[in-house]
Amino acid sequence: MVSQPQEHPPTPWHAGEQALQQRVGVAERMQAIGSRVIRDHLPEQHRDFYRQLPFILLGSVDAEGQPWASILEGRPGFAHAPEPHLLQLDCRPDPSDPAAANLADGAAVGLLGIELHSRRRNRVNGHVTGASATGFGVRVEQAFGNCPQYIQQREAHFVREPGPRQGLQLQRLEALDEAARELIRGADTCFVASYADPDGDPARRSVDVSHRGGQTGFVQVEGDCLSIPDFAGNLFFNTLGNLLLNPRAGLLFIDFSSGDLLQLSGHSEIVFDGPEVTAFQGAERLWRLHVTQVLRRPAALALRWTPGKRQFAGTGRGSRPEAGIQLPVHL
Could you tell me if residue 312 is inside a domain? Predict the structure, then answer.
C-alpha cells in the first residue's frame, strides 16, 4: 500500500527566515516552535502589557519602498486592544516623522511594545485599519514575545504632555555628520525596521521593527556605513530574514536624556563570517547599513529616560553582551 504524501503544516516563517534557520541547522525545531508561540491574536496578558506602555516602536514603509523605524508616545492606555485581533493606537506620528504618510488603511506595519525598566517586549505585525486624524488600528496577524536579552534598563518619565511639539525643526541631512556619528558611537540601544514581500507580492508584505542592544559602542560607524553585530538570539531571524530577501532597512537612535531622535534609512548587506565578524567578540554574524537618508529631530519626544542597572560589561569592539542564561520568552 502506497502511503499518501502528508501535507506540510502551515509555517509562520517566510523564505528568508527559513533560509537562515536552515543555515544554522534549526529549521525543523523552529517550525515546531513557530506554530506554537506565534499567534494571530493578542492573549490577555499581552493586551494588559500594551495598556501600561507610555511608548511603542513602529516600523512602516514609505511610498518609495524605504522602511523607517519610529517611536510613538502617549499616556499609558494610548495603546490598547479592544479585542484580541486589534491593537488600537490613540495617536499619530508627528508630521516631521516619515511614518506620518505611511499609515493609510491597508498599509503593512510592525509594532514593538517594550518596557525598558522590566526588559519585557512583545511584537505585533499586521495591517493598518481605521486610520483617522487622531489614531489608527493594527489588525493583528502575528503576535509574539521576545526574551529580555540585551535590553538596557531605563526608567521613563514625561517632561511635557505627549503630542506634536510646536516649532520642531526637522533636520534632513545628505549624510551623517559628526554629531550623528557621536550619538551612534555612544548608543547601547537602537531599533531597526525591515520588511519582505513573500514571493514578490506586496499584498503579502510583512513589516517588522526590532530592538538591538549591547554595550556602549556596539554599533560601529565609519563614514556613512554602520556595522551592527548579531549576537545569539531566539533564532527567529525576523530582521535578517527580511534583509536576506530585501536589503532595505531603517534605524532609529534615541538620545534618552534629551529626547532627540536620529532616523536613518538605507540598504544593507549581511556578513556571515570572516575577520570582520570575529572582531566583534561573541557576534555570530554582522550586517552593515549603508546610509542614504538621515533625519534628525531635536527634542522630538516628551519622554526622557534615566539609566537603571547596567546589564552588560565592557565596551566597544572586541567585547560582547553578557548573554548569561537564556531567559524564557514572554508568551
Answer: no
